[in-house]
Amino acid sequence: PRPPHSLPSLLPVNALPTSALTGREPLVFLPGPFSNEPSSGKAHLKQCEQMTLTRRQKRLCRREPGLAETLRESVRLSLLECRYQFRSERWNCSLDGRGSLLKRAIKETAFLLAVSSAALTHALAKACSSGRMERCTCDDSPGIQHREAWQWGICGDNLKYSTKFLKKFLGQKRVSKDMRAQVDIHNINVGIKAVKSGLKTTCKCHGVSGSCAVRTCWKQLSPFHDTGRLLKFRYDTAVRVLSVTNAATGETELTGPRRQSQSLRSTDLVFMEDSPSFCRPSRYSAGTGGRSCAKDTTCQSLCCGRGYNTAMHLTTMSCHCQVRWCCHVECQTCQREEEVYTCKAA
After folding, report:
1. pLDDT surpasses 50 at 4
2. Where primarily located (predicted)?
3. Where do runs of H (alpha helix) occur along 243-336?
4. According to the model, what pLDDT value does residue 197 have?
5. Do residues 309 and 342 make contact, with C-beta atoms less than 8 angstroms apart?
6. Domains of the chain and any CATH numbers
7. What pLDDT is attached to residue 246?
8. Rounded distance, CA 93 to CA 40, Å?
9. Which of 13, 77, 138, 208 would bridge with 155, disulfide CB 3.0–4.6 Å?
C-alpha cells in the first residue's frame, strides 16, 4: 500500500513518470526541532539528524555542509508564502489537519506540493550563489563571464545545479499506474517550473564614463513572492484530471476533461477530488470561526454565511510627522479607534 503522507513530499524535475512518492521525503511544512547553531562542524551534523529524512538523505546531508541550513530556509519560504497567499481564503495554510489533508488529492494539496518543491529549488540555487553550499558555486550557463562576475562581486543563482541536486537528493522510483503518484509528481514539477520561469539574465555595463565597453551578465531568480503569486494563480485555475490509458504505449496518463481540444499543460496544477469547505472545524482545518475579515470584501465568503462580530480596537500610530534639518524626522503619537471584524463560530 502507498505510504500515507504526513506532510508534502518533494521530487525532482522531469520525474514523471519514473519517480514515485515514498512518504519519506523531506517534510518541509511542519517546523522541525531545528537548532539555532550555525551549520558547521558538529552543529551541521546535529541538524541533519534532527530532520525527517531517509537514511540515504541523511548521509547526503552530512556530506554537504550548508544543506541543513538550506532545507530549513526552504521551510521558512514555503510556509510564509503559503500563509500569505491564502490569508483571505477559508483554508489559510494552517498547520491544523495537515496530515489528513495531504492524504487527499485536492487543490490545496496540489499547492502545498508545488510551493514546497519551488521553495527548495529556490533555496538551493540561492545557497550556491551565496557560497553557503561547498559543492556548488555560481551559475555556469554558457556566455556568462565568470572572471568579470567575480571581479565585480556578482554571482548568478545556480538553478542548473539546484535541480540536478534535487534529483539526486530525492531519489526515484517507478510510478507504474498509480494515478495519485502521477498527480503529486506533476504538481511538484509545476512548482519547479514556476521557479524556472522567473530566472532572468541581468547585465551590468562597465567602462569609461558609463560606456558599455565591458558587459557582465549573470542569472538571477525572481523574488520568491513572485513564484508564490504565480502558484496561487495556478491554484485558482487548477484542472480536475482523470486517468486514461494510452492505446499506443499502454501507460496510464492524466487528462483534463474540461480541455476538450487541448492536452493538459505541464504548468497546470491538477487535482482529483473536490475540497472540503473548511468552514467548520474538522480533521482538515480549524474552521473559520474567529478569523479576521474585511467587511466589504471577504467577510461574506470567509464566514460562510454565519455572520461576523464587530469590535472596536484602539491602535497606536505615528502621526503629524515633520522633517527637521537635515535628516531627522519628528512624529507625534496618535491613537485611533478601528472596527475589527471576526467570523462567528460555527
Report:
1. no
2. secreted
3. 299-302
4. 92
5. yes
6. 41-276 (no CATH), 293-343 (3.30.2460.20)
7. 64
8. 32
9. 138
